[in-house]
Design goal:
The complex is a heterodimer of chains A (292) and B (368).
Chain A lengths: L19 H13 L3 E5 L3 H5 L12 E3 L5 H14 L5 E7 L1 H5 L2 H10 L3 E7 L34 H6 L5 E6 L3 H12 L4 E7 L3 H4 L6 H11 L5 E4 L2 E4 L2 H7 L4 H5 L10 H23 L3
Parallel strand pairs in A: 1-2, 1-3, 3-4, 4-6, 5-6
Antiparallel strand pairs in A: 5-7, 7-8
Helix pairs in contact in A: 1-7, 3-5
Chain B lengths: L1 E4 L1 H12 L3 E4 L6 H12 L6 E4 L3 H12 L5 E6 H6 L1 H9 L5 E6 L13 H4 L7 E4 L3 H16 L7 E6 L8 E4 L23 E2 L5 H33 L6 E4 L6 E5 L1 H16 L4 E6 L1 E3 L10 E6 L9 H10 L4 E4 L9 H9 L6 E3 L5
Parallel strand pairs in B: 2-3, 2-4, 4-5, 5-7, 6-7, 11-12, 11-14, 14-15, 15-16
Antiparallel strand pairs in B: 1-8, 6-13, 10-12
Helix pairs in contact in B: 1-2, 1-7, 3-5, 7-8, 9-11
Classes of the chains: A alpha/beta (292), B alpha/beta (368).
């Protein structure tokens, strides 16, 4: 599938250099096309789109309260459908607005079956407010509120979403636009609630040079710290670069030690993270092979 | 059509007759019957709307915001803790200029748990940019809810409207009331700033201080203009259906020396107290404030004033009393009564008038 030339995120954003969110949003909107409304809770994208009265987006963007994205998306989708319109409703929220404050609204919307796509772009911290820890921050990562490194693991958002049995669920990464693009196209072709979780390596937050966003995403996938997959009506498939990475992975240390946020990580913590990744991939492989 | 039902049922029927496209709601005592009734109307086909059974009140208002943003008529209902839980979204609604209509069953806030009538829930939302109306009867709950859509959606207003009804005292008391033939009263919803795919723009984007300032002024302008719109809509309602309302319902005030002022069901109760006082030779009258936002202009010159508040602003005083002090220049005797559904009879109200003292405050059932 060829990615369209049409741009919906224009060259006037307020994004940081190397911003993964604007990279992701570029392909999400290309996949969705012009008959689309973005619902944006408080997050980096609130800023990226620019300051009133101008906008860097070429589709309508509705900005809403932090905890409310999935509920606003539900109401908007129901209203469009009642009016006979197929307009795509895409909630585009950060990890804080999804795994923390927004999870109740997300859970309710997934359970109700409202027809919309929810995308969580995950930069693993409250980046918009200066890099505080979120429930998606991984073990040992230093943030402004975990200055000695986070002592808890990243919340397993995908398992929580899977428990709601949405019609379509997928992961993606800013470093793999084709995989991301195809998944958004597929998700939007299916009626009902869809969910995508997209890794967004954030240069200022993760403390790596701003020209290494794509490389950092690739390291995440190659190490198995991030696995590209989709679950279509409950059936799991590993996709894109993760198919090769599942067979031969690089050590997680190659990914972790390239980022300033993991400065001070101990060998024990690296071993713990490696074991967790091995276990997660083992579980995914079993699920792929299983019939149920 | 004359029918018999509770205040809740009256609201539900008014919503049915207003034909909203989306209703999103969460059940909470004593509002529950409103959303149960609406869910039934949708299920049996007597109402062609999408009913979204949300997981919280925060989400019910959020879902209404999403729906109203597309330009369709939208309704929700709540009470007490539900209302304060959705407080953030009340600000978002008025800020986004979405003409959502909501019924609120007035109820006390915990702790301790109390489901009785009290205006502390809605009055703590007085600065959110919502218009607020307080119904005194089931008939008025029906009429006010039906009219609220036309007021909220008026091009000069485009602000949300909250119809308040006292928990249990109005929500659960069965009364006769008349429904209307809705044809021709509510114009099609027209939201000039509805999402337009053909002309994409940002809604609620980052604003500078000076732009934000203009938006706040626009809300206030809508609030000020709503006074004329309320009068116009209530006049049109009277012309078409024969029932007449005003922002303040006066009773025997022409020659009154002392005026009792309250809202909601207390406001109806005091009309009986006025008759009783008149029989005793006290030249009493009453004023029932129906619209609290926008706040009405009331001429209280040369009158003694007794205000009954079913609410309180801790550290300051009865909220209605203080609004009247500030806005109308009176020095009322402020009575705090009926909190948590405390019984307040017309005899009690008459006794407040007898014990009045200028600028005093009295807590009924607490003060010795």
């Amino acid at each position: 599938m060829a990615i369209p030339d049409e741009e919906y995120i224009l060259k006037t954003t307020s994004a940081c250099a190397g911003c993964p969110s604007s990279l992701i949003l570029r392909y999400v909107t290309k996949a969705a096309g012009p008959d689309t409304v973005l619902v944006i809770p408080a997050c980096c994208t609130s800023v990226i789109q620019g300051v009133y009265p101008t906008t860097a987006m070429n589709i309508p963007v509705y900005n809403v309260a932090f905890a409310s994205a999935a509920a606003v998306g539900s109401g908007m989708s129901e209203a469009f459908r009642a009016s006979g319109r197929k307009t795509n409703v895409i909630c585009y929220a950060g990890d804080g607005g999804t795994v923390d404050i927004g999870i109740q609204a997300l859970s309710g919307a997934l359970e109700r079956g409202n027809d919309f796509l929810y995308i969580c772009y995950d930069n693993e911290a409250y980046s918009n407010t200066g890099m505080q820890r979120s429930g998606a921050t991984p073990l040992a990562a230093r943030t402004t509120t975990t200055p000695a490194g986070k002592t808890d693991h990243k919340k397993d958002l995908d398992a929580i979403v899977a428990a709601h049995n949405p019609v379509y669920q997928a992961t993606a990464c800013a470093a793999y636009p084709m995989d991301l693009y195809n998944k958004v196209v597929k998700a939007l072709s299916i009626p009902g609630p869809k969910f995508m979780h997209v890794l967004a390596p954030c240069p200022p937050g993760w403390r790596f040079p701003s020209d290494e966003t794509v490389e950092m995403g690739k390291l995440a996938v190659k190490s198995g710290m991030w696995v590209l997959w989709e679950r279509d009506h409950g059936k799991l498939a590993i996709t894109g670069a993760s198919k090769a990475a599942m067979k031969k992975r690089i050590p997680v240390a190659d990914y972790l030690t390239r980022q300033g946020r993991f400065k001070g990580i101990t060998d024990d913590q690296i071993t713990e993270i490696q074991a967790m990744v091995d276990r997660t991939i083992g579980c995914l492989q079993k699920e792929v092979e299983s019939e149920c | 059509m004359l029918t018999i039902g509770t205040g809740n049922k009256a609201v539900a029927l008014a919503v049915r007759d207003a034909k909203p496209v989306v209703v999103a709601a969460y059940p909470i005592t004593p509002q529950t019957e409103i959303v149960e009734e609406i869910a039934n109307y949708v299920a049996d086909g007597s109402m062609d709307a999408r009913y979204i059974p949300v997981e919280s009140e925060h989400s019910s208002m959020a879902a209404c915001i999403g729906a109203a943003a597309t330009g369709v008529r939208t309704f929700t209902a709540t009470s007490s803790h539900g209302l304060v839980y959705m407080c953030e979204m009340l600000h978002m609604t008025a800020g986004a200029r979405l003409p959502i209509v909501m019924a609120n069953a007035n109820r006390a806030l915990g702790p301790g748990w109390n489901i009785g009538a009290e205006h502390s829930d809605s009055l703590s939302m007085r600065d959110t940019g919502w218009l607020q109306c307080y119904a005194g009867t089931a008939q008025e709950a029906y009429d006010a809810t039906f009219m609220a859509f036309r007021i909220a959606e008026h091009a000069n207003v485009l602000l949300p409207v909250m119809i308040n009804l006292d928990g249990f005292l109005l929500t659960h008391i069965t009364q006769p009331f008349d429904t209307v033939d809705p044809e021709g009263f509510l114009p099609p919803t027209s939201t000039p700033h509805a999402i337009d795919i053909e002309n994409p723009g940002g809604y609620g984007t980052l604003t500078t201080g000076s732009e934000h300032f203009k938006f706040r002024w626009d809300i206030e302008r809508g609030m000020r203009d709503s006074v004329a719109v309320i009068k116009e809509v209530e006049e049109a309602f009277a012309a078409k259906y024969g029932r007449r309302y005003d922002m303040v319902e006066e009773y025997r005030c022409e020659d009154a020396e002392v005026v009792i002022i309250a809202m909601g069901t207390l406001g109806k109760e005091m009309e009986v107290a006025v008759d009783m006082l008149r029989n005793e030779g006290v030249r009493a009258g009453s004023m029932r404030v129906r619209w609290f936002r926008p706040f009405p202009v009331i001429d209280l010159a040369d009158k003694e004033v007794v205000v009954i508040d079913r609410d309180y602003s801790f550290g300051y005083g009865g909220i209605l009393a203080n609004e009247l002090r500030a806005k109308c220049g009176c020095r009322p005797f402020s009575v705090i009564a009926g909190l948590g559904g405390q019984d307040v009879t017309y005899k009690d109200i008459a006794s407040f008038v007898r014990m009045r003292e200028e600028d005093g405050e009295y807590w009924f059932g607490v003060d010795a």
